[in-house]
Each structure stands twice: as C-alpha cells, then as structure tokens.
Design brief:
Structural class: mainly alpha
Number of strands: 0
Number of helices: 2
Strand content: under 5%
Distance between the termini: 19 Å
Largest sheet: none
Helix content: 40-55%
Number of domains: 1
Length: 67
C-alpha cells in the first residue's frame, strides 16, 4: 500500500488494506473477505467458482491477517 486511500480506514500505517477493512479501519471477518475475493476472481478472470476459491485460498494464505 502506497497511498492513504489504499489503507483500511484510510489510516496510513493500518496493516489491512481497504478491501480487507471496514470503513473504520477494523478488519473484516475472514469469510466476508474470502467471498469478496472469490467474486473478484470470478469476474476478473471469468473462471468457475471452484477455481476462484482455490486461487483465493492460496492468496489469502500468504497474507499475514489470514494465515
């Protein structure tokens, strides 16, 4: 994250990005973030849900908040 608007709650230094955070900067629930990410991959890559879920799980496993 390099711009204030990319940080959760637009709070520079927040460890969570805007996509993983609520408006106040607190971390969203894991299942909410996972579902949003699955839908993102399905839309962006035009892939089936099962593939998007695999891709999401692999990606989230590398993120400190979701390990």
């Amino acid at each position: 994250m390099t711009k204030p608007e990319e940080y959760g709650g637009q709070k520079v230094g927040n460890k969570s990005c805007v996509y993983c955070s609520n408006e106040d900067g607190s971390l969203k629930e894991r299942n909410v973030v996972r579902e949003q990410m699955v839908r993102f991959w399905m839309s962006r890559e035009n892939i089936d849900r099962s593939i998007a879920e695999e891709k999401t799980d692999e990606y989230m496993a590398k993120m400190p908040a979701w390990k």
